[in-house]
Amino acid sequence: MVDEVTVLCVDDRGAAESTGDRLERMDDRFSVRTATSTSDALSVLDGSSVDCVVSAFELTDRDGLALLDAVRAEYPDLPFVLFAAEGSDRVASEAVARGATAYLPGRDDTEQYGVLAARIRSAVEQYRVVRQAAAQERVDSVVREVNQALVRADSRAAIERRVCELLSDAEPYTFAWVGRYDSASASIEPTNWAGGESSYLDDVTISADETATGQGPAGRAFRTGEIVVSQNVSEDPSFEPWREQALAHGFRAAAAVPLSYDGDWYGLLVVYADRPRVFDESERSLLAELGDDVAHAMQARDAEAALRRTSTRLESLFENSPDMINVHDGDGRIIDANPALCEALDYEKSELVGMAVWEVDPNIEPEAARRFWESLGNGDRHELETVFRRRDGSTVPVEVHIRRICIDGEEQFVVSSRDISGREARQQQLEARSAAIASATDGMAILDENDEYVFVNQAHAEVYGYDDPDAFVGESWRMCYAESEIDRFKREVFPELEARGEWLGGATGVRADGETFPQEVSLTRLDDGGLICVVRDVTERKEHRRKLELVQQRTRTLMTTQTVEDSAQVAVDTAQEVIEAEISGYHALSEDGQRLRLLTENGGMESAFETLPEYERDSEDPVASVIWEVFERSEPLCIEDTADHDRLAGHTPAGSAIVYPVADHGVFIVSAKAADAFDETDRTLLDILTSTFTVALQRVERESLLREREVELTRQNERLEEFASVVSHDLRNPLSVLEGSLELARDTGETGHLERAERALDRMDQLIEELLTLAREGESIDGMEPVDVDSVVADCWQNVATGTASLQTEATGRIYADESRFKQLLENLVRNSVEHASTSSRSQSVDGGGHGHSDDDEAGTDGEPVTIRIGPLPDGSGFYVEDDGSGVPPSEREAVFESGYSNSPDGTGFGLAIVGRIVDAHGWDVHISESDAGGARFEVTGVERPE
């Protein structure tokens, strides 16, 4: 199916508007625009998006074929229907040859407009499918080329430039640029572009705020971080500041794509197309993925540049660090030493290089040291306290950090040392603080004035994914955050911390494996410049809030479902979404109350069970016995491990389950393959879901009953209208006859008038009898049982006044029916044939009542006697009743079963209506045709027979 369809109708103004109005009434998805000439039509196509052109043949300036040529020149695939009142076979052939989608004669009738609407829908749907496939392939091709270019680019500028070039060269894109946010001007400034003329960028201003120049795709994409498109520049009000310049450069649509990766912002990519409505949902999705790829490539190039800068900084740090640093090989020979170490030990660098480390540290035993160095893995770090010996023999206490590294395939050891002569008092203070917080459940740490960790409790290490708190000591707090978060701390948090001495708020931490997580952070500045940091992981809290919000959304959905199936599917799907219950389903109670049958499931049952489960009452299946116990006790059952359950162990693929009884409707089974899959929070959420689900089923049941009552009330009203019609109309004639006859009898004394009055009374009695039949019987039956058709036919023949009519039967056997109603059906059909099938009159009369007769003749006595035949249908699907009378004209066969229908002056119009009601009540069908003898043939089908 297609969504909204924009149709351009081209004709003189009145005809175009009339065609448009009729199309919009045909289908509310149609939105019609009109034009009166070829030039007007091309102007509309140039300025807006149109899905289909419908043109007359005669136009004010040129004909429809000329318009078709003009449209095909600019829009080769656009659906075009020539709806030509003045057309001909030649015009039709010419239109198809020139590429028209369809040709239709422009007849002014509803049926033809219905055909036109169907052709439009079909053509637009195919047009959109083809266009979407082409767009998919086109964007995929661009994405492949861009990704290849990203691999080769060596800088962010090169990436930006090449991406713009590739996009601007890809039809229907014509221009692309990349911009970055300029905080000084609060605007988005282009940095690279390609395609068309760059003068467009000279004429426009794009701000990042909420002003008019910030409401376009670029400004909104910057603020929201999501792709934003303008599908039609000429009509989009938010594009008003740049519309004139954009249209002058041939831009008809635009898309702004944020370039961000892992929370870091790298700019904005803006693409322009030469036609409107280019950026459908699939194209936007692909462009968003392209934006992610470009940002990732930029991040990689930035990381390479940062690595180079880091290398330079490390060299500078080595030379200028206040810490004593040396590098030695696996034999303990010093191969490099920084100035701080040379100065502290009073050696020249040339003297230290080549010395053994145990000449500097007298506590080192060479063989033990070599074994220890070999035990360290690459990147491993070790910390110890020892003393260094100066040139003059004196010693200084130091804290040593040693790390094993591999440079160009050679194992080396970097030793960073710090003089700790004056640290004893400070260490005592830190130890006292550490003792107070070491056992805290929240992550707690102390940092010194250099923002380096001096104490970390176990909880703090674990929240960041480390086993050992010592992994933090001596490191900066920056190890726990991404660059973007570090920048935020510097920009927002630290100023407030310095002003108030404390700060409390949220942040995003980074664990040892690179995973990010939400946290709550408390910072308190110490008098000595240090910092106390308390961290709490709030992942579970946020996840719980997310699940609760999802359950709330689904409960609102459950309040709008219309069927039991829809309600159950929402509940089952929600269980999987909220608590990952991969084997879940709803089993509804069968009508006989003996089975709990699977109504809907989440897809996991098909893979978990060889045969989808259905639970019989009193079954020997242990799983069924557990499920029925829950249903009958109306209490939920939680099974943490089915392997420990005395009846379920070994009989179910589920490892854990929660079974909820749903009032008198069925059971909701939520289960997972793993044991202990559901915690207390999961159970609480499921309790909420199941309660709402139960209410939803009760609501659906009530609404269903109301609908049934409404239908029944409608039927009752229809019957009342029928009765009112008879009372107000059909009984009026015999009443008038009765009154007139009695008056004449009084005036003349002739008894003939009394006979006429008696016949009027008989007629009234007949009408009332059949009216009561309709009222009492309705359309329902009490039950069906095997009935012998041949016996019932014999009884009916005795009950109906058949006069000189004769009966021929074929053995029909037994069928399922309500015998009383079936007998009434046959009596009415026989009576109809007897009273209306006189072979002498051939009057083609039929009476829905089947009881009419003339004032002077008894049934079947005014011509040749009628023959009635009853027997089974050849295919065994039912039976027939036919006669050799005058038959029923084809034009009247649809109407004979309507109440009150009769073409006989004596008919009541109810006899065959009663037949129709009885057939409907049995679930059968009845059809009228012509018998071989030319009379009426009634065939009743859909009849079931006992086996």
UniProtKB/TrEMBL annotation:
One of its GO terms (molecular function) is phosphorelay sensor kinase activity. Keywords: Kinase, Transferase, Two-component regulatory system. Residues 5-121 form the Response regulatory domain. Residues 835-846 have a biased composition (Polar residues). Residues 726-941 form the Histidine kinase domain. It is an enzyme of class 2 (transferase). InterPro entries: CheY-like_superfamily, GAF, GAF-like_dom_sf, HATPase_C_sf, HATPase_dom, His_kinase_dom, HisK_dim/P_dom, HisK_dim/P_sf. It catalyses: ATP + protein L-histidine = ADP + protein N-phospho-L-histidine. Residues 834-902 are annotated as: Disordered. It holds the Pfam family PAS_9. Residues 310-367 form the PAS domain. It comes from the Archaea. SUPFAM superfamilies: ATPase domain of HSP90 chaperone/DNA topoisomerase II/histidine kinase, CheY-like, GAF domain-like, Homodimeric domain of signal transducing histidine kinase, PYP-like sensor domain (PAS domain). Its EC number is 2.7.13.3. NCBIfam families: sensory_box. This is histidine kinase.
